[in-house]
Amino acid sequence: MVSRRSLAATAAQNSDARLAALFADARINPDSASPRFLQVCLAIRERIQSKQLLHGERLPSEAEIGAWFGVSRITARRAVAELVGMGLAERQRGRPPTVNFQSTRQRGAIEDLLQNLLVLGERTTVKVIEFAYVPASPSIAAALEVPQGEPVQHVLRMRLDDGQPLSLIETFVPADLGRRYERADMEALSLQALFRRLGVQVARAEQSFTACLALGREARLLGVEAGAALFRVTRTVYDQGGRPVEHVTSLYRSDRYEYQMSLVRAGGTWKRA
């Protein structure tokens, strides 16, 4: 008979392995003007808000953060303290800090906001910054349903509105699809237009909208200060067979985008006019 202690030990080992895989691509930019503790904090925050780290799950220990990010334990401790201060983690006596995040999903008007962001993107010009094939990280492998480490196409583009940075769009596409078009195509056409040209029939998408803070490189490319607030739209697109064909994260400058609506009072609640 397997003891409870043995089961608990196995569960802990599985949790440790999952965390290690989740932070396998963890890095800081030593040349960034953003403090190291903030870079670590924002990297962990991103995994919390994207629900890669789940509510109630333990955070990486100071030793793990130090090893994975290449920072001191003092830096790791401060990063965790920042997460606690943000309300994204909580401490309990005698236990490691745990994730404290349960997002509330709202539909309706927020869906209009997402669509508005995407339509706005169609009216702007695009500059391709990176175009390469890279090994799929654990999170990208899960999103595209491919083996971890399998080559996928990675493209980073910047959208410009009147010549000024508006957003960064990072896309990952399975390699067999990505090799059917070139970098120049990404400069001229949207990925959805390329899919239509290739005969890829898109059927549905899973999409979320959150707020986040600009990291060092993102801040530099978008022309904002590190830690500035951004809108983040994350979307995974599926074809008619249910296969993921695109995973995209778009970061929008909050100071260059405004969403307005008119409301009327009806039945004791506010509704769109």
Automatic annotation (TrEMBL):
Keywords: DNA-binding, Transcription, Transcription regulation. Residues 34-102 form the HTH gntR-type domain. GO terms for biological process: negative regulation of DNA-templated transcription. This is GntR family transcriptional regulator. It holds the Pfam family UTRA. InterPro entries: Bact_HTH_transcr_reg, Chorismate_lyase_/UTRA_dom_sf, Tscrpt_reg_HTH_GntR, UTRA, WH-like_DNA-bd_sf, WH_DNA-bd_sf. The keyword Protein transport does not apply. PANTHER family: MANNOSYL-D-GLYCERATE TRANSPORT/METABOLISM SYSTEM REPRESSOR MNGR-RELATED, MANNOSYL-D-GLYCERATE TRANSPORT_METABOLISM SYSTEM REPRESSOR MNGR-RELATED. One of its GO terms (molecular function) is DNA binding. It comes from Teichococcus coralli.
